[in-house]
Amino acid sequence: MTTILERTAGLLAFVRTVDTGSFAGAARLIGASPSAVSKSVARLEQRLGVRLLQRSTRTLSPTSEGAAYYEHVAPHLRAIEEADDIVQAPGNVRGVLRVTVPSTFGRPLISAWAGSFLERYPDIKLDLSVTDRRVDLIREGFDLAVRIGELEDTNLIGRSLGVLQYVLGASPEYLQRRGIPRSIDDLRQHACLRHLLGGRPQAFTFADGTRVIPNGPFDSDDAQSLIEAVVKGVGITQFMRIAIEDELAAGRLNVVLPEIPMFTTPVYVLHAFGRQLPLRARLFIDFLVEALGVSRNPELSAPASR
Question: pLDDT at position 162, please?
Fold first, then answer.
């Protein structure tokens, strides 16, 4: 007769493998090697006498038996994890939190995290991926994603973090050399750097709907590279204001055409936990609200893009 420990061995490895679609993804969440996860699942299959996963060279997917087993087992594992959160006080919460953010947010978020969140919750390890790629939270094992722009259809849960303001920026040296634009039409006579998304340049867009396609000596799909180029005096470009607050405060950049407002865009933090959000993730979302300086909004179910 098998013991309860023997019967539950491999359950976590199996559930996390289904969640992420790979042994490597499960290993990242569990903190083990992919081979250890694979062996653990194989032992579970051997004990049950049934194949739970269909293995191919590229993907893993549950068999019909595996899918049925997952539906029964996964909710109980989640309940165990949630029970840990119930007894943890915010001051001693611990664990790994995997977050993905767009490149524009990378630097200000890291700066705020290092000076604030880490001091409050030193036992939470932040695993931060800075990328403009749309990460699949479930398959890649992420807890939270910050997304900019209108949300598309999905099953993720989103919380509004408010809206972000765009501005045009240039260095004092550039403006002294080339002159200060006094109107939107004046921009056509300036070196306007282009931010590429999906290989396409993003128009300078103003609050009244006016759009200007930039034309200048430098294109990049990396926001930080554009900031560095503009600080060096290469030209003018469009930024989220939050991304250049330090440069503005230090006088390395000036806002161009400050009297003509540019467009705003919403920002959200997304997760796939449903209503049972882990404490470490809840605390980090609260931190995001504080770090961005926006008013608190209730959590909402929102269509979003994975």
Answer: 84
- The residues that bridge with 145 in the sheet, in sequence order, are 100, 270
DSSP bridge partners of 143? none
- pLDDT tens profile 204-242: 999 999 999 998 899 998 888 999 999 999 999 999 898
pLDDT bracket for residue 179 (50, 70, 90): very high
- Distance, CA of 285 to CA of 158 (rounded, Å): 11
CA–CA dist 173, 180 (Å, integer):
11
Strand 144-148 relative to strand 95-101, pairing? parallel
Asked whether residue 297 carries a pLDDT value surpassing 50, the answer given is no
Whether the Cβ atoms of residue 301 and residue 158 lie closer than 8 Å to each other: yes
Tell me the whole-structure pTM to 2 decimals. 0.63
Burial of 64 (0-12, 13-18, 19+ CB in 10 A): exposed
> How is residue 230 written in tokens?
């503009």
How far is the C-alpha of 108 from the C-alpha of 113, rounded, in Å?
9
302 contacts 188 by C-beta, under 8 angstroms:
no
**HEC secondary structure over the chain:** CCCHHHHHCCHHHHHHHHHHCCHHHHHHHHCCCHHHHHHHHHHHHHHHCCCCEEECCCCEEECHHHHHHHHHHHHHHHHHHHHHHHHCCHHHCCEEEEEEECHHHHHHHHHHHHHHHHHHCCCEEEEEEECCCCCCHHHHCCCEEEEECCCCCCCCEEEEEEEEEEEEEECHHHHHHHCCCCCCHHHHHCCECEEEECCEECCEEECCCCEECCCCCCEECCHHHHHHHHHCCCCEEEEEHHHHHHHHHHCCCEEECCCCCECEEEEEEEECCCCCCCHHHHHHHHHHHHHHCCCCCCCECCCCCC
